[in-house]
Amino acid sequence: MKIAILSRDGSLYSTKRLKETGVERGHDVFVIDHLRCYMDITAHSPKVLYQGKPLVDIDAVIPRIGASSTFYGTAVVRQFEIMGVFTANTSQAISRSRDKLRCLQILSRRGIGLPVTGFAHSTKDIDGLIELVGGTPLVIKLLEGTQGIGVVLAETDQAAKSVIEAFRGLDANILVQEYIKEAKGMDIRCFVVGEKVVASMKRQGAPGEFRSNLHRGGTAEKLRLTPEERSTAIRAAKAMGLRVAGVDLLRSNHGPVVMEVNSSPGLEGIEQATGVDVAGKIMAFVEKSAQEKSPRGANAEGSQDRIKY
What we know:
The protein has three domains: 105 residues, 3-Layer(aba) Sandwich (Rossmann fold), CATH 3.40.50; 98 residues, D-amino Acid Aminotransferase, Chain A, domain 1 (2-Layer Sandwich); 63 residues, Dna Ligase, domain 1 (2-Layer Sandwich), CATH 3.30.1490. The strands form four sheets. A five-stranded antiparallel β-sheet has the order 14-13-12-15-16, with helices on both faces. Strands 2-1-6-7 form a four-stranded parallel β-sheet, sandwiched between helices. A four-stranded antiparallel β-sheet has the order 8-11-9-10, covered by helices on one side. The chain is of the alpha+beta class and 309 residues long. The chain is globular. Helices cover 32% and strands 26% of the residues. InterPro entries: ATP-grasp (IPR011761), ATP-grasp_RimK-type (IPR013651), ATP_grasp_subdomain_1 (IPR013815), RimK (IPR023533), Rimk_N (IPR041107), Rp_bS6_RimK/Lys_biosynth_LsyX (IPR004666).
């Protein structure tokens, strides 16, 4: 099979592992910088071009789209979809999960456990917003934040008001969530492929740090999920429409709650913590799904000037 990995940096651990695993399984795997792709948007012969030549005869695409390039990256994924190419995650699912507010609203509609969350536009409603989530301490999140950046724990009402006013003064959109004290700085990353959790780990925040992100000094180790946690992770990924996802949970007094659903979860931390070949699980899923997909009609075009790898 011919498989394209959409990634800005081929030296990243996740990108390298996927490429190496695909090659070991006998596939022609190559990395494409999606921001260097350009598109021919026509009714009868849609194309994605790279280095001046059309990308053709591709059986599958694995998107590794960073948050900063979501708009253009999903446009490239969507173009491959129009061409009939199987994509490990669809453009719509990536867009859904990247919009934190939309993501939570979809999960809420599906009855999936969430922290109590508030969203408002005017700073005149701060008091009501704080009361809505149960008072302080509470967590304030930038909608555009990633890897724990733009996430603030406010211990008092005055601190919460100051942070909210500061963010809104910069015209930044924020969420306000209840602080799950009983989690004690620990969260759970569930790695979902297809409709199965293939690996799971707990992440513990560094001393004095309520955020458990590994990028912020957190530690990770293998964890056995409860049936409810496993079901919640699968349902959350399915609600987003994601075939490959990292679902982050907290253990609360009222059961597991979903904090985030990630469409491009990193492989390094979870593979090292669990010893599971997650890249192999993804590649096996892509193989099976692409083979089951109906033949593509558009990729027969332009065979005389194909880009080679």
